[in-house]
Amino acid sequence: MVISISEERFEDVPDFDYEPRYVDVGELRMAYVETGDEDAEETFLCLHGEPTWSFLYRKMMPILAERGRVVVPDLIGCGRSDRYEDPDAYGVELHYDALRTFVEELDLRNVTLVCQDWGGVLGLPLAVHEPERFARLVPMNTGVPDGTQEMSDRWHEFAEMVATAEDLDVGRLVQNGCYRDLPREVVDAYRAPFPDERYMAAARTFPALVPQSPDDPGADLFAETQKRLAEWEKPAFVLFSRDDPITSATRDPLRHHIPTAREQPDVWIENAAHFLQEDAGEAIAEHIVDFVDRT
What we know:
Layout: E1 2-3, E2 21-25, E3 28-35, E4 43-47, H1 61-65, E5 69-73, E6 83-84, H2 92-106, E7 111-116, H3 118-129, E8 134-140, H4 153-164, H5 170-176, H6 184-191, H7 201-205, H8 219-229, E9 240-241, H9 251-257, E10 268-269, H10 276-294
Helix pairs in contact: 2-3, 3-8, 5-6
């Protein structure tokens, strides 16, 4: 069963006065917001991860919009996007195909991909499989798990909690993934897309979709992505936060895996944790604009 979420849930969301737009991606609608000049030469595609939504990029959007068009979708099952009530309906293929359809329907070109968490897990494969659309990569606190990687104990604890917690508090999850304390209204904004358990299937299932062996669904796509990233010739700028216990150890391997990433400044985002857009959004956006200007 496909369910949509009422716009009334977002009436009290602070500092995010963008009109939602929608793209049909099969039987579901993917929501997005955008700002900046639609006819600008540069396009920034900003992809969030679990269990957030486009609201995560609100501190970065005005700065990026001074340089180009900014497009920020909500992944299926997140934010204002439609969702399946059945957890079994979700898979890597569903999320990847929806994102690919979204980018193709909007015919996005000359894209600087800004991606974090599942935004990178899904966005990096799309970039290397449709390189004619993408000009640059900015992976942040993310990776491409092909089933051969070893996940940390911290990640396994997180995955177990998300799958089994009787009352999954998304706002608290986001707060726990930040370096700084968030205002109450911001925490509530992350809760807004999840009024009850029927709306939480995507949030519940994301961790289980990470391939744990090369035979798992999605592993072939991600293995091919790893191969193509090693051959990537366009600019790439790896921006990780030092205080993310889940991904910080994978930052240097990724930076050395993408050949052009080593050509960019060796930058850590300080005083920021997993959701670095919350902790240091303005500083990150400035880094990205400088990256675009120098490349």
